[in-house]
Protein: Crp/Fnr family transcriptional regulator
Amino acid sequence: MSATEPTDPGTHGGDPRANAILAALPPAELARLRALGEVQELDVRASVYEPGGAITDVYFPLDAVFSMVAVLQDESSVEVGTIGFEGMVGLPAFLGSTSSPHAAYCQVPGRALRVGLPELRDVLTDDGALHDQLHQYVSATMVQLAQNVACNTGHQVEQRICRWLLTTHDRVRRPDFPLTQEFLAQMLGARRPTVSELAGRLQQRGLISYSRGQMTILDRAGLEACTCECYWTIRRTFPGIADAATDPHDASSPA
Amino acid sequence: MSATEPTDPGTHGGDPRANAILAALPPAELARLRALGEVQELDVRASVYEPGGAITDVYFPLDAVFSMVAVLQDESSVEVGTIGFEGMVGLPAFLGSTSSPHAAYCQVPGRALRVGLPELRDVLTDDGALHDQLHQYVSATMVQLAQNVACNTGHQVEQRICRWLLTTHDRVRRPDFPLTQEFLAQMLGARRPTVSELAGRLQQRGLISYSRGQMTILDRAGLEACTCECYWTIRRTFPGIADAATDPHDASSPA
DNA sequence: CGCGGGACGTCCGGTGGCTGACACACCGTC
DNA sequence: GACGGTGTGTCAGCCACCGGACGTCCCGCG
Structure:
């Protein structure tokens, strides 16, 4: 847990209702979780849980974005799933597992509501809206994982780069966010030079712009034209994302 | 639903306790499910649900084996998950979804206990052992899906062939089962000639033997030596499989 | 102002697996 | 005994991506 110190929940952007699952709860249930949890600011690569390690807390992202990552024996790594304001980090804990062979860490820095496992269970025993919301989210996550299997097996790296950028853009709801080619290559399970060449082409075409670890989405529609159907298949399963309009300040917000 | 007519539950091999989830239920809960459901014999490629289609029943495999499959726009297909006696086909239904963008069909013919969705919900409202069992199984399935993402992204087809054979062997608990190269290629998201060449090598090395759609596992330990760690990572998460000894008639049963 | 390191660009050889096509071997059927 | 369907073996050509290695630019820092 390399999270920085907790932030005052009253701070701008710290409203738990920024998270789609929390926003769907009745006021009383939301109030309980807000009281039992703590809004935290997380840095890039801040670990939520390690492979095989105990899962002691779950996180409801507000504007942060997280990755579920599998690390293979040759120390290469691949992102297996993305988690933003539409979901929750730590599903195994909800499902009764105390650990997972995979890792979860922060991909784009921001805020998340951290809730301890005992506190989560307290609220869950009410057997109210949270349980239903999480069941729905688990279902959508399984679709995401399954589609990632197919996409990573059959589609080209360029399409997957576009999909990754769109997926992240949907969750940060800002046209620019920190991202290095090295990090992106790890997420895709590809080599950095491969990413460098393909990303360079996307930039030449005016779809994106980046420099020294800062990525900017210039032409969403263009990226959508370059990605595969997997993007839409996954997006459709997350109502929280499909419904949410991107920040109006973003000139290239999704349709 | 291209299943054949129901089989008398009393038939040899039709005992619901062959399924690990059902076997873990208290006698009363098991009896209810057995009474509400129906043991069916399923043929190869018998569909359980289609992409986007309604999920009206769930299946608890007894000796049949099923695949979750994603079909891409170019009509290629990839297996995203395997379901045998350790699990249940139709998780989206349990989680509250009435459909899935993926398909599920029978991979190795055999028996399964079919239970209608209303009947399943009836038993689930008891909020007893079945709910817990399914939560645990969902958690393991997510690990399987996630590891499949990583494996299909990073590992070679030969390793994945070995993993597929071992995974299926664990579930049929017989050294031989029907399998064509064409089918295996579809599961792996690879071309048939690729599978032909690699499988030929495995046969030359004496690890397997096959002819005209019939596969026989000759040397489990040899296959285990050729596969990747993903096999074990997934296997560990399914206690029902790790515990179950393979049929003693099988000379090359797992350790 | 010089230095070091992080982020990015690029090159070449190698290769696994794809594209597409063709040939054979076995099986049941007529 | 001829025949078509199914399952399998094999080939040449090709391309995306890997593996490893350099070079360059820019920033922060001493």
User: Anything to note?
Assistant: The CA atoms of residues 69 and 79 of chain A lie 4 Å apart. Residues 1-11, 247-251 of chain A have pLDDT under 50 and may be disordered.
